[in-house]
Specification:
By secondary structure, the chain is an alpha+beta fold. The protein is built from 8 helices and 7 strands, in the order αβββαβααβαββααα. InterPro entries: Aldolase-II_Adducin_sf, Aldolase_II/adducin_N, Aldolase_II/adducin_N_sf.
């Protein structure tokens, strides 16, 4: 795949922020979505602290270093402590071009459960044994370097994390892939909560059936690209200013 320019990545990430807002994945001005910029050194795009996700545009995104410190002039602050989780993952996983984090009601509810995502639906099966689990250590702080090491350890070679008593995280080789994974990880949480709320006995297929379904997802060459293109077309019709 051809490397994307900074402007292309700005538009991709701004689109993801707008879609977070559309699909109710936000927590007001909190959480981050980040993408690695091409070139030398560790440089990333993140949201300016204080903007609602529905307000973010390509030009409002801020370039930061691996510690979350701005590398450009900006009239908006950046939250370095909020970038702690992202910086740890980006630095440890060169293939993690994009990292997305969420504090949704469903995601936080599942993060409060001991068993994580259960294979109750084929959506959930895509994430079977592909989501790590990071025990709660308090609010992420930019001076807690040891937690960064444990975050990376708990992520391992998975495609995402449940941050205990906190929220969800996904990674991807592109903004499109990370968003696809976050959207469906959120859906998996919602499915599980809905099923549990009925009080009826729950059915999980056999491990062999679950692994077969997971393999079918893993071998799909699309990996969310078709959905992402459709969502970008939707934004271009309804909120074209995200590109500004």
């Amino acid at each position: 795949m051809t490397a994307q320019t900074e402007q292309e990545l700005r538009e991709e990430l701004a689109a993801a922020y707008r879609l977070y807002a559309q699909f109710d994945l936000t927590d007001m001005v909190y959480t981050h979505l980040s993408v690695r910029l091409p070139g030398e050194g560790h440089r990333f795009l993140v949201n300016p602290y204080g903007l609602l996700f529905e307000e973010i545009t390509a030009s409002s995104l801020v370039v930061v270093d691996s510690e979350g410190h701005p590398q450009q002039e900006t009239s908006w602050p950046v939250n370095p402590a909020g970038f702690v989780i992202h910086s740890a993952v980006h630095r440890a996983h060169p293939d993690a071009a994009c990292v997305m984090h969420s504090h949704t009601l469903a995601g936080m509810a599942i993060a409060a459960q001991k068993d994580g995502i259960l294979p109750l639906n084929q959506i959930n099966m895509e994430f079977y044994r592909r989501i790590g689990f990071h025990p709660y250590e308090g609010i992420a702080a930019d001076d807690n370097l040891s937690e960064r090491e444990r975050l990376v350890r708990d992520l391992g070679d998975n495609i995402g994390l449940i941050l205990q008593n906190h929220g969800l995280l996904t990674i991807g080789s592109s903004v499109a892939q990370a968003f696809y994974r976050m959207y469906y990880l959120e859906q998996a949480c919602r499915v599980q909560l809905a099923a549990q709320s009925t009080g009826a006995p729950l059915h999980c297929p056999s491990e062999a059936e679950v692994l077969r379904a997971r393999a079918q997802f893993e071998t799909d060459p699309d990996q969310g690209q078709m959905i992402w293109k459709a969502l970008r077309r939707k934004l271009d019709r309804e909120q074209p200013d995200y590109r500004n």
